[in-house]
Amino acid sequence: MLPAMVADPTLPRSSASETVASLIARGTKELAASGIGEPRREARLLLNIAFGLTTGWQLCHADEVIANAVPYDRLLERRAHGEPVAYLSGKQGFWTLDLAVSPETLIPRADTETLIEALLSQRPERESVRTILDLGTGTGCLLLAALSEYPLATGIGVDRIQQATILAADNARLNNLEDRCSFAVSQWNAAIAGRFDVILSNPPYIPSGDIPGLMRDVADYEPVSALDGGTDGLDDYRILIPALNHLLAPDGVAIFEIGIGQDKSVPALGCQAGLRVVEICCDHGGHPRAVIFAA
């Protein structure tokens, strides 16, 4: 039996009903023609977003008729133009968390989880971390993931975009972490005083000239302010890394995400600032992804 679906009365009804199998086949064809990778899997994802139909249900009910396919068709059109699935669904998983996302923030990526893995390797005792600062918090993914692992910690997330801090606060509530964190609008650490056991940051690090060559769903839809790191991709590191001397607590660590080819230039900035490079950690693809600094 088809799960109950409440049609939006503002949407026109389709002129003809289609089966689940027909919708998937048509969606697969349209997405493939638009250059979307794994088009059949994506067509199933869009059917799930539109109607809440899981892949398992779709496989078992291929001949079930969908009377109004307009919500699916609208998602299909947006995805065919390159809009990321996370923006279509409004959510993205990160670490063990479910997070809301919006076009005001970078979509959390699995590569960024390398920073949490690096933190756990450096501070395996879960009671050892009490204060965390997340510079450029976006969705709040790094701060909230760290708080989920360190039950005695509290944290602050800052972002220069007000809508990002609102979204991060919503995500804290969604994951029952709102009592242990706060969020502030700030140009990096300008509004921050005090020292922290852990500092996390995924700053913009894509060289400006490389942005037009990124995948369409990144270059055309994700916020440029979260991507553009200036001519060589290092502009924000040059601001943030020297500030660590005034932000790190004794025995504190700072963990920064880096891009491809930055595993020498970013550590060098740390050395110039008088910091110690503790470790450079690779993501699961084998690429250097996180640099750990200590005072």
Automatic annotation (TrEMBL):
Signal peptide: none annotated. Residues 118-205 form the Methyltransferase small domain. It is an enzyme of class 2 (transferase). PROSITE patterns: N6_MTASE. One of its GO terms (molecular function) is peptide chain release factor N(5)-glutamine methyltransferase activity. GO terms for biological process: methylation. It catalyses: L-glutaminyl-[peptide chain release factor] + S-adenosyl-L-methionine = N(5)-methyl-L-glutaminyl-[peptide chain release factor] + S-adenosyl-L-homocysteine + H(+). Keywords: Methyltransferase, S-adenosyl-L-methionine, Transferase. Gene3D superfamilies: DNA helicase RuvA subunit, C-terminal domain (1.10.8.10), Vaccinia Virus protein VP39 (3.40.50.150). Pfam families: MTS, PrmC_N. Its EC number is 2.1.1.297. Transmembrane segments: none annotated. Residues 23-90 form the Release factor glutamine methyltransferase N-terminal domain. This is peptide chain release factor N(5)-glutamine methyltransferase. It comes from Acetobacter oeni.
